[in-house]
Specification:
Largest sheet: 6 strands, parallel
CATH superfamily of the largest domain: Response regulator
Structural class: alpha/beta
CATH class of the largest domain: Alpha Beta
CATH topology of the largest domain: Rossmann fold
Distance between the termini: 39 Å
Radius of gyration: 22 Å
Order of helices and strands: HEHEHEHEEHEHEHEHEHEHEEH
Number of strands: 12
Number of helices: 11
CATH architecture of the largest domain: 3-Layer(aba) Sandwich
Helix content: 25-40%
Strand order of the largest sheet: 2-1-3-4-5-11
Length: 349
Amino acid sequence: MRSQWKSRSRLVLTGIAVIASVGLLAGCTGSGGDSQNVVDQGTTTEENAAAGDTVTIGFSGPAADHGWLGAINSGALAAAESFPDVDLKVAEGTNDVNAQIAAVETFINDGVDAIVLLPSDGAALTEVAIKAMNAGIPVINVDREFSSPFAARSTILGDNYGMGVSAGTYICSQLEGNSNAIVGEIAGIDSLPLTQDRSAGFADALSDCGLKVGPRVAADFTVQGGEASTSQLLSANPKIDAIWNHDDDQGIGVLAAVTAAGRDEFIMVGGAGSRNAMESIQADDSVLKATVIYPSTQAADGIALARLIAQGKTAGDLITPSVPNRIVLDAPVVTKDNVASFIDLSFQS
């Protein structure tokens, strides 16, 4: 089964279901200029949807110590359950690098057909991922990248830079004409590349409309950190026009600090797409007016993709019959106007 994944595989973009594959014809002109050949475009919609040979997929991720990671794990389980031909082996979630390496070693020894891996530390898990690949087991890397291109058959990522761009673009649209607007930022953990990417995208988007980041603090993706950092930012700045908070989990603390300070003169944009954030946006009952999606369906995407790769199938809506080795998901802005379209994909903080 594993020998097939190298030659015939393509992208799955949904979290729990496979997007329908479209059979396309590509013509090529022969030397006479009038002959055409039908090019094999891979598996059809019906072939992808139909149950195939059962494949065993190993899944490992960090400990679900906040809402987004909890949704990552539950999404992977739901995706596997939606496919009658997938046998999912789940390692216990852990932030211990050595424990996660051991889990992947077990998958290799068990001879699974594919591995979906959200590493606690991408660089630290690279070597064992390469070992799996060398054993003929395709690895789907989720969210946190390995440090070698040889460690994964395909990588599925949220768009951290794009999150910042989306947040900044929305704030620009809301502050149009206010060239002196004060825009604050409540980041996550500054040492993480994902935080740096989000901040870079935010600064670039604001710059494009003539604004810049003003007061800025970093939290730690926790409720307590969000509340403490926001209290600090608000006490130091009596006037603010807009704030972007990178993470809806820490956003619970952010909003608690805003309420405690009695501040409501600004608009706020969140990040990630939690259920409580979307419900607040829907109710229009706070300064929070929008949030930017960072998909918690990435591991579910990985399960669906691993199934196709392990079964030697292809995925729909691409002409080239192959699986992209890098998939970056969208970072849309959710507002009161479109929240109904996104709330079912939200996660509990």
